[in-house]
Specification:
Blueprint: E1 8-9, H1 18-25, E2 31-33, H2 52-59, E3 70-73, H3 84-91, E4 97-102, H4 105-118, H5 126-132, H6 158-169, E5 174-178, H7 179-184, H8 186-196, H9 219-227, H10 237-242, H11 245-263, H12 274-295
Parallel strand pairs: 1-3, 1-4, 2-3, 4-5
Helix pairs in contact: 6-12, 9-11
Amino acid sequence: MKPSFPNLFIPGAGKSGTSALHECLDQHPAISMSSKKEPHYWTRPDFDEYTDFHRTKYMEYFNWEEHIKYQGESSTGYMQFPKFIGRIKSHYEEFPRFIFILRNPVDRCYSHYWWLKGMGSESLSFKEAVLSDLDIEPHPGLKLPEGNYKCYFQYGLYGKWLERFYRAFNSMNIHIVCSEDLKDDPLGTVNGCFEFLGLEPLESIIPSEANKSIILKKPGLYKLAKQLSFNQLNVPQLVKDMTPEFVKKLIRKHLITIVLKYTRTKKTYPIISDTDRLWLKGLYQEDVRHLKELTGMSFEKWTDFIDA
């Protein structure tokens, strides 16, 4: 089988269970999810400078054997970053399939904040952090040196971002699942994805809890370790590609792993206050209403928005 581009994307939403869904979908014998979960191939600033070398490296993340019907990846920036849709439309003769996993935007925003705070990438209070870039739309240029993104509020404006996908690719190529459903009924939720893709259901899957937020004793040390990783630094893609993989693996395996081992705690982040929850509900209310109209879904487990 001659390799083409992947035909399945999980573009978001970040901190909603994309890693878990990525691992669950990969359990189907007809699906090959990328070995690197978030290649961000389609949204890198140097995209227009890509050569055959870059394309070949990207294609190596997937299994291209004949029995594989879908090659997929899960770069969460694709949902918001401005050039993704245009690049897909200009490089594909047939539209790929998109599966979005969405989480109550209040919980997603709060989890996003504590994910970065727990790893040393955030020093502001929750409300200060949300307000600091409330109106700034996510784009690749906002990447932190340690490889992450803020824009806490904007990442949860699902209606705003999904409208562009519905206009560009139509609803037949889009499937929406809720992270709350993946948690409560992983097999049923994932089999719903397989049905959307025209694949046979599975009798069982191994649930995943990948990429859960953690709190570290020395978050600043972990932040530094991440910045030293060539996979995360804001350096030209060519430099990353020319760096031997064994060097990258040594950095990740030894430095980051050791830091995690000795600074990881069993602490969980505090429950969001009623005041902050009500405040975020007000901020997201109109977008959730738009999301419901756009998708025709009720999102009944998002109890904050029953009346939206």
